[in-house]
């Protein structure tokens, strides 16, 4: 078990103890222990545990040292497992509702008997929550909004969660001897930010063993359909997974059909009809004559149209006079016209990314130290890494004040000078945009940094006009390099604050400010739907992982997927530029 995983267990123990109404000092001890653990280098932690010297670290007492050692050596902690089992599941579920923390949950349980989301909703509907001391109408409204959001998004899943669930299933299907070909399709293949269900296509001449394996695989909570050519299951994560068995000669057509959005498929069918053809999941056949598209395809099972065999999607598009359209673009948003004209962009690839900005360390709310982040970036082959810990107004994230950021800048300079890592570290900040548009640091502090990311972390309820003016005022500051997470949204959790995106994009272009595509899987912000037009107008993008630990650095790959949906090429993305170009760009920005 890694130190971050152990720290996560300690932090969760703190939450569970608070739910139980334990002594605040005991709760704080686990919270402190988690932070201390994160701040220790992994190698040093291993040494301290091996030497039995963990108690020598300030903030870790004898009891905590024993628990950390047990976690490290066994990967389990009996105390944690018993504690978790002792707390009703409904109480833990309440933590998923925005505006409800451990203290409020205890008050709701003690005074209103609330121990589930359903009971909390009922208490809000009667006004009982608003009447409680320490709550009021605003708290009740926020809780109701949180419950609505949870219901709204209950059937959707983040892309990376769906991908993690789909990959082992796909690998399992491909490992079956009866399977000729297996692929996934749907919104997962199109790289939508959230996914409703998983679609798997398999070609086989012996479907029964494949269907039997699919419904019996590990992780299945419920079998909802079990037929000869189709099966559906609900996974323990709540995701629905559908399996379709397709004859080999129809596979390409089905794969295209079950990948494309509704609008893309309609437009493709219309294009086929204009050429006297009928396109469906079963094939591409002459439109004239009697019978449905399926019946015609059944009569022509050789995968051919007009004497030409179609064995790939590239050939399918070519049969309709089109260049291959990448799955990410199949949304019915002009991709077919661009493919006809040979005007599709060469989309950015993961291999194009040379570095990343906007990453956090244990100096603020990150879970790994500066050196650990640098080592992880080097292991990923990145040429540069930008550190942008929070500024002082982000108290909840332990934002850095002037003295602490000066110390961090010095530490980064020393690390670069030491030559310990090939990856160069740029010193930055994620500086809060204050409610009136001023920045959280004075000019003399910002001038010492290599770059400055500005972001909104407060006063989300400002009007559309006020929030837009606030962000534009911040971008007008000469030290600002890039704008972080444009709308502040958290996918499946929180809607973004209201802004006029066009005005902000215009201001960013005018003031040569980069807008990031925040690749954190909960954000993917700026939204891919805005990027095509913005890039055409000259906006530059930085694909940033907003990593809070070493594992989070790899999230830039999710950002690449969103960038591809936004029609971005590597020329649009500054983080696809080599280190020398980036250094020159940052210097020009500072003196420009």
Give a short summary of the structure.
By secondary structure, this protein is α/β, with parallel strands linked by helices. It is built from 26 helices and 18 strands.
Word description of this protein:
- The longest helix has 18 residues, at 136-153.
- This protein folds into four domains: 3-153, DNA polymerase, domain 1 (Orthogonal Bundle), CATH 1.10.150.20; 157-246, Beta Polymerase, domain 2; 255-340, Beta Polymerase, domain 3; 350-591, Metal-dependent hydrolases (TIM Barrel, Alpha-Beta Barrel), CATH 3.20.20.140.
- With 592 residues, the protein is of the alpha/beta class.
- It is built from 26 helices and 18 strands.
- The strands form five sheets. A seven-stranded parallel beta sheet has the order 12-13-14-15-16-17-18. A five-stranded mixed beta sheet has the order 2-4-7-6-5, with helices on both faces. A two-stranded antiparallel sheet has the order 1-3.
- The two termini are 48 Å apart.
- It is globular, with a radius of gyration of 27 Å.
- 44% of the residues are buried.
Helix and strand arrangement:
Layout: H1 3-19, H2 24-39, H3 42-51, H4 62-74, H5 78-86, H6 89-94, H7 102-112, H8 117-125, H9 128-131, H10 136-153, E1 157-158, H11 159-174, E2 179-184, H12 186-189, E3 194-195, E4 197-204, H13 207-216, E5 220-226, E6 230-235, E7 240-246, H14 251-259, H15 262-273, E8 277-280, E9 283-286, H16 293-299, E10 304-305, E11 308-309, H17 313-319, H18 335-340, E12 355-356, H19 370-379, E13 384-390, H20 402-418, E14 424-432, H21 443-446, E15 453-455, H22 464-475, E16 482-483, H23 501-510, E17 514-518, H24 528-536, E18 541-544, H25 556-565, H26 579-591
Helix pairs in contact: 1-2, 1-7, 8-10, 22-23
